[in-house]
Amino acid sequence: MTEPDRDVVVVGAGAAGLTAATRLRAAGLSVLVLEARDRVGGRLWTQDVDGATLELGGQWVSSDQTALIETLDELGLETYERYREGESVYVGPDGTSTRYTGEMFPVPPATEAAIDALVERLEALVAQVDPDRPWEHPDADALDRVSFEAWLAEQTPDQEARDNVALFIAGAMLTKPPHAFSALQALLMAASAGSFSNLVDPDFILDRRVVGGLQSVPLRLAERLGDDVRLGQPVREIAWSDVGALVRTPDLAVRARHVVLAVPPVLYSRISYSPPLPRRQHQLHQHLSMGLVIKVHAVYETPFWRDLGLSGTAFGPYEVCHEAYDNTLHGDPRGTLVGFVSDRNADDLFALDADERRERILTSMSHYYGPQTLEPSVYYESDWGSEEWTRGAYAASFDLGGLHRYGPDLRTPVGPIRFACSDLAGLGYQHVDGAIRMGALVADQIVQTEKHRTERTR
Length: 458
Fold this sequence. Notes:
Its cofactor is FAD. With 458 residues, the chain is an alpha/beta fold. It is globular, with a radius of gyration of 22 Å. Strand 7 (87-91) and strand 8 form a beta hairpin. The chain has three domains: 6-42 and 215-277 and 414-457, FAD/NAD(P)-binding domain, CATH 3.50.50.60; 46-63 and 78-84 and 205-211 and 292-386, Polyamine Oxidase, Chain A, domain 2 (Alpha-Beta Complex); 106-200, Guanine Nucleotide Dissociation Inhibitor, domain 1, CATH 1.10.405.10. Strands 1, 2, 10, 11, 12, 13, 14 and 22 form an eight-stranded mixed β-sheet that branches. A seven-stranded mixed β-sheet has the order 8-7-17-18-19-16-20. It has helices at residues 15-26, 66-75, 109-126, 140-145, 148-155, 159-174, 183-191, 196-200, 202-205, 216-225, 279-286, 304-307, 343-350, 354-369, 402-406, 432-457, and strands spanning 6-11, 31-34, 46-49, 52-55, 60-61, 79-81, 87-91, 97-100, 208-210, 229-230, 237-241, 244-248, 253-261, 272-274, 288-290, 293-300, 310-315, 323-326, 335-342, 378-383, 396-398, 417-419. It starts with 5 loop residues before the first strand and ends with a helix.
């Protein structure tokens, strides 16, 4: 089926694509959004599982995420604070569980001093990094040649200090082992949140949630776009030239002057391009890969940990489940914990059958909260690595040397094709805030291009 021509075709109905489409339509341009899935939202997905409403993908809002906050306000969506009253729990290298308050883990004084020194050094470097252009840091080449693990080892011999600092960037954010990405990539991750301290402070970065779930953002944007959002339409071919493109799915074909690829970069190769993308793009995309994480949802009849004086916040860099939080739904009398298992631990657990995997994960979580953790009424594992149209979580990052070598061309248009997703963001990298920023940026670039085109044809 041939669709009427559009000014812009947007591939992907996540936050980036729908933000771009909304801004383009507001500027008077005609838009068609093509989404491979049978739903909108991309890596945002709020779902009912066995009677419990769970956020299977992204869910948190922090105070620095101004693009997201403005969008929530514009859409009339309300937020609520993550529960954080009571003590947190830390499980150290010997398996000892310790309750604590404040930001610093309860570690030996020498390790605390080593952590402070590492954070001070990181903060000094992060302050020199422009998250939109990290490759311009004066030592970018050298920082991109050394793994984050090796860089940490150069700073201190204290293994526990290194493991705790690595936890927040490797396990909690990039969801890759710290030997698999560079120190420069780590600095970008921190700079994208404004500072390393912001990145590691759960009361900052995991501040609030959206009533009804964060998928409400793309759902409401899609409602406004109506029939200009088509689901179940995986784009298979883009035939392009300098003046436009023909975009094909198995069911339809549409011509447009501009195309926005608003999907993770690991999916670009799922599309055939005629002519092929330039060599630079082919090489660039091969050096980007997704991390791997299991997001674990455990629902209980009551939030029993609160009666124990616990906030639900827990960390254990040596645990299968390296971090966990109170994730109780707004207005729900039940209690929900959310935990995370990343990179090599996730690989190991996926080699097990489902029952054994569940047992291993809940046993690890019980080290934080006690034996009641072992018997949830609802249990669910979000596995984005098995999602055909995502293939990992939370976002794509470069291998060693890739960011300095290829970063400047991450957003470079190819003819009429532009790229927009949270994986390419500076501020808000990996987060919905970054997706919204990228969607808005690309939309504004297209609007300016159209204005210049109109002026030339007058």
